[in-house]
Amino acid sequence: MGSRDARTLRIQAEYIEPETRFEKFDVHDTIVFFGSARFKSRRNAQSALKAARKSGRGVKAAEKALEMSRYHEDARTLAKRLTHWSKELDTNGKRFVVCTDGGPGIMEVANRGASEARGMNIGLNISLPHEQHENPYITHHLGARFSSQLQHRYAPELQWERFMISSTLMSAMSFTGFMKPVKLFGRLAV
Question: What's the pTM?
């Protein structure tokens, strides 16, 4: 299955298999949380700042990380509130299920918030050699791991996020510095 000849089969399976799970669990649509895998919790950011001040290195970056840590907890709280709200809707099936890329940081705390509200949540994960791993808060059987070839790695994950999405919330951070998080609400035009 890892050969070039089997690539089409792998890609096809990565599209079909999640659909089967979503149908089985009656998931109709999602609210997708995007954000930095590198945002730290307030406690971890405070510890990092203390260590930076002690060593005299990286103080400015640690101060910025502490400032940005509030979005870590905000994502958890928002996911929890949205999950409580969606569970109270009088509809058939699961509506507005929290969905992330299944990794650490903002995505992990969004899955955690939904889990704490005792709601289903989805993790659409990708295979990265040294970083990405499925976080422990994803609802059992609703985590998908996509492992296509590098040039197509994000295609199945993004397809499912686009297909099932009702709303999206973003919290962005560039690789060279920090940006203020941006929240987008409403139906995504695809």
Answer: 0.73
